[in-house]
């Protein structure tokens, strides 16, 4: 993926977040609108497993919009290949109605991959962008749903496929 496109997506996300922040109630106490929590994710294929945990904080602009940042830790194992990834993301959440949550998330991960061959293990370390769009069912503080990686690369991604279930919890 071209760095210019990734940079543009990041700037657009920051711009939208700042615009929404300026339109929120300026008299409200900032910390009363911050929600802490995160998500966990699991992915399975015929020959592997992927698990992730991502603690995050979001600012609740109003009942429908929230935006924030997240740290991420991922582990994956496919056949004899092992992957470890860590990084961060920016995310935006939109609830058109209280029970439905739509999301967009730009994630940048550092990948440390070991590929096992019959003779040697090959180490491959690189940066990987992901841009997820998702939808989920919300009840109180919990959202369960699916997200799809628009930048999915079958050769580099640590995820088993572009579609991944998630569970988000915010308090």
Automatic annotation (TrEMBL):
It comes from the Bacteria. This is Alpha-ketoglutarate decarboxylase.
């Amino acid at each position: 993926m071209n760095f210019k496109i990734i940079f543009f997506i990041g700037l657009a996300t920051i711009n939208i977040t700042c615009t929404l922040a300026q339109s929120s109630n300026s008299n409200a106490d900032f910390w009363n609108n911050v929600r802490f929590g995160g998500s966990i994710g699991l992915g399975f294929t015929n020959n592997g497993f992927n698990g992730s945990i991502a603690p995050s904080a979001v600012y609740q602009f109003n009942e429908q919009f929230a935006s924030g940042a997240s740290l991420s830790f991922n582990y994956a194992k496919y056949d004899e290949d092992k992957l470890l990834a860590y990084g961060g993301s920016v995310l935006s959440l939109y609830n058109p109605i209280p029970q439905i949550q739509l999301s967009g998330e730009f994630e940048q991960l550092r990948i440390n991959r070991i590929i096992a061959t019959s003779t040697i293990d090959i180490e491959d370390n690189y940066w990987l962008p992901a841009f997820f769009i998702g939808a989920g069912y919300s009840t109180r503080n919990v959202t369960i749903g699916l997200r799809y990686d628009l930048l999915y690369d079958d050769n580099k991604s640590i995820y088993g496929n572009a579609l991944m279930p998630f569970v988000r919890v915010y308090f």
